Each structure stands twice: as structure tokens, then as C-alpha cells.
Amino acid sequence: MNENRHQLSAFWSLTCRHMLVFLKNIPTVIFTLMVPLAIFAVYILFLRPMETSQIKVSLESLLPEVIENESLLHQFYSLADSWMIAGVLAVSCITVSLNTNYILVKDKENGMNKDMVSSPIDSRIIVLSYFTFNFVVTFVTNLIVYCIAMIYLACYQIYMISALDFFATLGVMILSSISAALITHFICNFINSDAVMAPIVAIFSAAIGFLIGAYLPGDMMPSGIQSLTGFFPGTYSAGLFRNYMMSTPIEKLLSDPALSSHVEEIKQVVHSFNIYISETNEVKVYIDFFGMHVDTGVMTLVLLGAVLVFLILNLVISKKNNLFRFNRKETKKTVSTEEKIEE
């Protein structure tokens, strides 16, 4: 019992230590928050006009009367906004989590890991402390970004998300943050210096949005990229976010009296976002995986599977990685020195 209390106390102390080190580095805190906000700003300034113009072209051929109705037109534009905000959240889970691991890499570079391993702390507790710290920072940062995005939508009076969708989105955010924290922690186990970490973060931050289909609808990407996105857990995170963030604006469109007789036309407009509306007007956002439609149940299972796989991998590697053991050569030198002293 005392041993368990000691390990729990060590876990809490290490987690708090990681958090304090992170918060004291103000530039890193600001950069961590600014990365997803910068992506959102790029969308508003550059990608949004492109996507809304595509919607407008579709409406001109299918629902020309909507073009003259400013209120209805903005409701259709809200589809692009909701679609992109969901993508930003999915990307943010990965980029924020990866950037937060700089403390893990710094500890390895500075030799702090040797102080930890020399103490009577279980290596799994050390892993758990880094993971918990990573998860908390990732989740809180995404929650801030999510609130800012909702304020943006509210300012345009586009739509307000339902309470059920809000809590469902928070659930997806928690699952996505856990998955991202485990995956990025596993990757950073193989990185031993900040000089290597910095370019990896830069490359991942630039590429991951395209690799998980967060920036552009599937129909606008090359077929090879579309197929590749299905192998990244972040793709399914984006799909879950979109299911819960896009159902409200689409249902609002379907219930509008002015569009009640144009359901088929609406289906064609939203099809470019991989959104499908059933005969009972049930809204579903699918992921196309080699011609198969992946629904929300399978998306959730994929993320849970990623959590399980990388949890096991992190526990296994904690026993073998240099982060949680002394270098064998250094150990041999120490033993050799002690033998000489005894002689």
C-alpha cells in the first residue's frame, strides 16, 4: 500500500513538474496555441472563399433561387465553415500533441531521464506522467480553439450547435487527444535532440492536414492522397468531428420551408463534402476507404484500436528505450570503476 502511494505521489509530482516547465516557457505556450489558430486564419482568408465559391457554383445550377436569399446562402456557407473547423480540431490534436513532446525530448537531451531512472519510480509511472501532461495540454488547447470557432460562427449568426452535438464533440476531442498523445509519444521516443525535433514538428504541421483530409474535401484531392488518408487515425478523428458539427446546419437547411421541396438538390450540394442524407433525412458524414463507406461506429473503433495499439507499444518501448534506462556502456564503466576502487 505504501509503495502504491509513493508511486502515485511520484506520478503527480512528475506531471506537475512537466506542466510547470511547459507554462514557464511562454513562447512555446503561445506557439502551441497559435498553430491551430493560424490554420483557422488561413482558412478564413484563403480557403473559405474557394470553398464557398464552389458551393455557389453548385447552387447556381441546382438551386438558383438560393443565390438571391442572403440568409439561405449563408446557411449553405456554414457547411464549409463547420467542415473546416472540424478539420482544424483534428489537425490541432496532432500538432499540439507533437509540439508538447518537446519536454520529453529536452529531458532526454539534458540527461534528466537519468535522474528519473535512478530513483525508485516505476518506468510506467514516468511514461504515464508524460502522457497525462501531453493529454491535458492537447485537450485544453483544442477546447480553446473550439470555443473561438464557435464564437466566430455566432458572430456570423450562422448556427448554434445543439447541446447533444456539443458534448459529443467534446467526447471526440477527448478520444482524439488520447490517441494523438499516445502516437506522438511513441514517435518522440526515437528522437533524442531538439535539433531533430524542430524540423519534424515543422514537416508534420505542414503535411498532416492534407494527409488526414482536413483541408480539402476528398473529391478535390488526387486519388492517391484520398487512399492514403484512410491509413491515418487522424482521418477518422476528423470524420467524427464532422459528423457532430455538420448535422445541425444540414438539418436546419432540410427543415427550412423554402427548401422543403429541394431535398434532392441539397443532397447533391453536400455530396462534395462526403455527406449523405438518408430517405429519413438522417445526416451522415462518411469516409471513403477504397470504395467502402466508413460510418461513425467504425471510425470510433479505429480510434480505440489506435489507442490500444500505441498504449501497448509505449509500455513495451519504455522497457527498452534509453529514456528509461542507463546507457549500457555507462553502466559498464561505472562497474569497472568500482572494481578498480575495490582492488
Helices and strands in order:
Layout: H1 2-24, H2 26-62, H3 64-67, H4 70-100, H5 102-110, H6 112-118, H7 123-155, H8 163-188, H9 194-211, H10 223-229, H11 233-254, H12 263-270, E1 275-277, E2 283-285, E3 287-289, E4 292-294, H13 296-320, H14 328-342
Please provide a written account of the structure:
This protein is mainly alpha-helical. It has helices spanning 2-24, 26-62, 64-67, 70-100, 102-110, 112-118, 123-155, 163-188, 194-211, 223-229, 233-254, 263-270, 296-320, 328-342; strands at residues 275-277, 283-285, 287-289, 292-294. The strands form two sheets. It has a two-stranded antiparallel ribbon.
- Amino-to-carboxy terminus distance: 42 Å
Strand content: under 5%
* SSE pattern, N- to C-terminal: HHHHHHHHHHHHEEEEHH
Rg, alpha carbons: 24 Å
Choose one word for the global shape.
Answer: elongated
Please provide the count of β strands.
4
Largest sheet: 2 strands, antiparallel
Overall pLDDT confidence: 82
